[in-house]
Amino acid sequence: MWWLVAAAGLGIPLVLTAMPEFGMMAVGAIAAAIGASLGLGAVAQVLLFVVVSVALIGVVRPIAARHRTQHPQLATGTEALKGRQAVVLERVDGSGGRIKLAGEVWSARALDTEQVYEPGHQVDVVEIDGATAIVM
């Protein structure tokens, strides 16, 4: 019974601090409670608690750290439009123009202010500046 109380007690700081280690120790306490219900002695219960808690922390923490440092592999929003090709609808130069990008009409301007793209040309989107696509 005391292991279940310990598990509940470890759940409180888990909720308050959002530190997953407390949750992993709570699972260790539940494992020790199961061991106690199977008739294990006090030393075996404590060892079961320690082994399960340390194993969970040792396995789950590196996985969580790796996921925290990974960047999303799926680009969304304007980031997804960078590098895509578009078709010039209205003449695009350094001051402006129109392109069709991802099925939508966008205002655009040339990256190189000297460059001019005529209707029908394929251009590459280099950057999105507000609602304007910068193309080359």
TrEMBL record:
Recorded topology in the membrane: Multi-pass membrane protein
Gene Ontology, cellular component aspect = plasma membrane
Its main localization is: membrane
The chain positions of domain NfeD-like C-terminal read 79-135
Write out the annotated subcellular location. Answer: Membrane
| Keywords linked to the UniProt accession | Membrane, Transmembrane, Transmembrane helix
Organism encoding this protein:
Streptomyces hundungensis
- The protein in question is named NfeD-like C-terminal domain-containing protein
Residues that span the membrane, as ranges: 42-60
**Does Transmembrane helix show up as a keyword for this record?**
yes
Q: Which PANTHER family match?
A: INNER MEMBRANE PROTEIN YBBJ
What Pfam families does the database record attribute to this sequence?
Answer: NfeD
